[in-house]
Amino acid sequence: MGKGLLFRNEIDRSYRDALPCAIAHGACVCYDEISLKPLTFPQPVYLIGTWKEDSAPNFALVTWITFCSVDLPTLMFASRGKKLTRELVRKNRVFSANLVTVPMLRTADYFGTHSGYNSDKCRETQAAFVRGALLDVPVLESSPRVYECELTDMRESGDGCIYIGTVRNILADRALNDTAYTKIDMGVLDPLIYAPGRYYRLSGEIGEVGCSQIRL
After folding, report:
1. pLDDT for 16-26, tens place per residue?
2. For the residues 33-55, what does the mean pLDDT come to?
3. 209: buried, middle or exposed (CB in 10 Å: 19+, 13-18, 0-12)?
4. Is the CB of residue 107 less than 8 Å from the CB of residue 113?
């Protein structure tokens, strides 16, 4: 039986020119006109910290974030639309990436649903913050792991931009100091997970790398 090819939205329709070849190889082609947004999920949740011109801290919720290099520790995040954080990262050339955990949910959601242009988010939520240990960036005291980053590159793409920063320092809760391979306990960390419109938490470990090699 041939594999089915499912075309779901406008993005996929650019590939319809390939249909004759697919059909010739036994593929069963069907169309589903449901409109799906081009998103990946689930996603981790971080708060990007920058200083405003009046020296007040500003934090923005981002979920498009990951490491892109280890030998030269490099972190990148993406953001789209008109946002104060985008302007401040570009201007200040430094930022903090604060990992969000489940206990930080309400604060993180407030930061993600209120604009920094016309509000002092930390004052309004009474969120405690300090200055970074190495870079001049605001750091949330409630975050168990924070990356102090220096902006090294920006890449425009569509209506968004990718911000690439070299990690100059990492601040971590004592309970998370051991981050060696297989040593990170996600149950202790309790990170907040995002999928479009909702937040989630992890339910537990189900295996480790290499488990497929174990004879059942």
Report:
1. 555 455 444 55
2. 87
3. exposed
4. no
